Amino acid sequence: MADVPRYRFGPLERRGVLAGLRATQLLILGVGGLLIVTAARTLSPAPALAAVVVIGLLVAFAAFVPIGGRAVDEWLPVLGEWALGSAVGRRRFVSRKCVEGLTALLDPQPEFPPSLKAITILAHAVPGSDARIGVIKDARAGTFTGVLAVRGKSFALLDGPEKARRLASWAGILAGLAREGGVVHRLQWVERTVPDSGNEIGTYLK
């Protein structure tokens, strides 16, 4: 096993305006620093020390501590849009298709809520096969998202050379997709392990 190559992915790259920090993080740090300086210059020593500690902790929490995978500055736009939608009645969406009755032809696209108006569902033919894959087009972001279902056999039980061959093949795929200037923006792998074909729950619910 010593001659089997190992591959290690580096940390996820997070680009920022300065030193990897987002503009909103810099704004929070700047406002916090201004409040700390103001408290230190206007208050007496004991209250100033307490204010500096409290403000520093709040600023550090708001700028760096994630809540549900997002920091406070990343949650503010989401909460703001949610509050605006609640105020103008956009949180509830009811499709008009239910009042149109039966039609002879299926609509090419479903009726999406306003937040998904830029989404289009497409079908793309697989070259050399009769199969088709679903593709989601996001006109607002200028992206296409496709999903492929793949199935593999047990990797842990393979011998060393076969593992190395498969790892090299996977590395070649990643290298081909990660070329600078390529059209692929993100590659995501979702793994599911089940003791059966995965259709037992669906069969049970039918």
Number of helices: 5
Average pLDDT for all residues: 78
Distance between the termini: 47 Å
Q: Specify the biggest β-sheet.
A: 3 strands, antiparallel
CA-atom Rg in angstroms? 26 Å
Morphology call: extended
Q: Largest beta sheet: what is the strand line-up?
A: 1-2-3
Strand content: 5-15%
Total domain units: 2
| Low-confidence runs | none
Give the proportion of residues in helices. 25-40%
Report the strand count. Answer: 3
Order of helices and strands: HHHEEEHH
Structural class: mainly alpha
Label this structure with key terms.
2 domains; mainly alpha; three-stranded antiparallel beta sheet; 5 helices
In short:
The chain has 206 residues and is mainly alpha-helical.
Task: Describe this structure as you would to a colleague.
The protein has a 3-stranded antiparallel sheet, with no helix packed on it. The two termini are 47 Å apart. It is extended. It has 2 domains: 23-88, no CATH class; 110-205, no CATH class. It has 206 residues and is mainly alpha-helical. It has helices spanning 23-42, 45-64, 72-88, 160-177, 200-205, and strands at 119-125, 132-138, 143-146. It is built from 5 helices and 3 strands; from the N terminus they run αααβββαα.
Ordered list of secondary-structure elements with their pairings:
Elements: H1 23-42, H2 45-64, H3 72-88, E1 119-125, E2 132-138, E3 143-146, H4 160-177, H5 200-205
Antiparallel strand pairs: 1-2, 2-3
